[in-house]
Amino acid sequence: MKYILFGIFGAMLSSWVQAADLTGRWVAETQAPNGDKRQTVFELKSEGDRLAGYLVSTQGDDWIADGKISGDSVSFTVIGDFYGVERRTQYTAKITADGLLFKMGGGARELLAKRVSTEAPKNAPPAAKLVLPAPSGAVRPNGLAKTPPMGWNSWNKFQRRVSDQVVREVAAAMAKNGMKDAGYVYVNIDDTWQGTRDAKGNIRANEKFPDMKALADYVHGLGMKLGIYSSPGPRTCAGFEGSYQHEEQDAKTFAAWGIDYLKYDWCSASRIFEVSSMPAVFAKMGQALADAGRPIVYSLCQYGMLNVGEWGAKAGGNVWRTTHDIRDTWASMAALGFDEQMGLEKYAGPGHWNDPDMLEVGNGGMSMDEYRTHMSLWSILAAPLMAGNDVRNMPPEITAILQNKEVIAVDQDAWGKQGARVAKNGDLEVWSRQLAGGAIAVGLFNRGAERAKVTARWADLGITGSKSVRDLWAHADREKVSGEYSADVASHGVVMVKMW
Length: 500
Ligand code: GLA
Description:
The protein is of the alpha+beta class. It has helices spanning about 1-15, 155-160, 165-175, 180, 210-220, 245-255, 280-290, 330-340, 370-380, 395-400, 405-410, 460, and strands at about 25-30, 35-45, 50-55, 60-70, 75-80, 85-95, 100-105, 110-115, 150-155, 185-190, 195, 205, 225-230, 260-265, 295-300, 320, 355, 385, 420-425, 430-435, 440-445, 450-455, 465-470, 475-480, 485-490, 495-500. The protein has 3 domains: about 15-115, Lipocalin (Beta Barrel); about 150-415, TIM Barrel (Alpha-Beta Barrel); about 420-500, Golgi alpha-mannosidase II (Immunoglobulin-like). β16, α8 (about 330-340) and β17 form a beta-alpha-beta unit. The termini are far apart.
């Protein structure tokens, strides 16, 4: 303890010449109203007069940003995440002989943090963001995802409540309830599975996942595949351990566990790297996966920034998110599906797909018409079909939507050509997708509040002559038509047909 205090005095004496070095672990003990002792732990790293590091918490560490040391004054912002919403808290402290004396609640309360070690926090963020040049070559394609990946992901429904047990139950349910047979084979664990690293830096799962390898074996035993989630930053979006500076090591660990799919989410990498570094940052993990000796589908998640379609495949990506997070509402789904995908179709093809985010079908926030629109649009968009509901417990009308084999066949069409909007008349939209063998899939959508007649004209569809028509939701053949095809479409609903 003495040398620590001495260190602080020394730092103070020289503070007008150079900023105090506050690197280390600082612990403040407080007493809760019920008498329980609580600890607040700061892991700090000084770089000149800048300060970086973490506020350690059991939920995953919060981030220290804009840290400044000026004389005996310290200030920084703690950036936390509260269910996906960023929370910023301002901290100011004085460097005193006893430690860092924080003024809380506008100065009403004081918190004294004492230094218990001078070790720098692991994975501490750099004081200035890193700029990496775009890689000159491309990661060798892994040959996976010839059609858009299909499966399930834990985030939309379970968020932090995902566990080994949930994943086992979900996989077992999917193997039995028709989901697997319909093509949904990836069972993907999203954020919050991560624990700490061991002394050698190997990532370990937290207590919710006692044995990841055993879980993979179990899922494989059902004829399905297991996916996992990480971030190129030191922390994931929910504040858990990321792969920053452990990329090769984590890729090898995932391969050793038997992982088949990785979603790699930018998150805190924004505090380490300039946005322009994205191609290099994602290629680093792409290469690490290619070298890990196991085929692993690589899913980029950086919300479509920096025109990801231009470089996602070169970074080794099989799919890349093109949007911010979907929510289980008509407004969110419609904005992502109808409005944000146009023009991206040129980037999609076998092995590499645009990803407008995971399905919300069955989560309760939309009507059946809206969920049918969701499923139809995603299939015309050649999007990955990642169910995001509780598949252990599906009402028949949800099963009928997720397992509509005729619509899935459009999504999984072997030609892999993403469709697009071909006509728009106010709230009424016609979308089409060319299919292998010369057929086309056509979606007649009604985004309006009233039932309406939607018409697809041959000129807009780029076809001629008379066509056979199959209604993919009614599962019924319609009469041959030429010139145009019209249908009466429910509010927020769709009529989806195949024509040849
Ligand atoms: C981001 C992603 C989501 C989900 C969460 C998990 O918000 O876009 O899909 O993975 O992180 O924290």
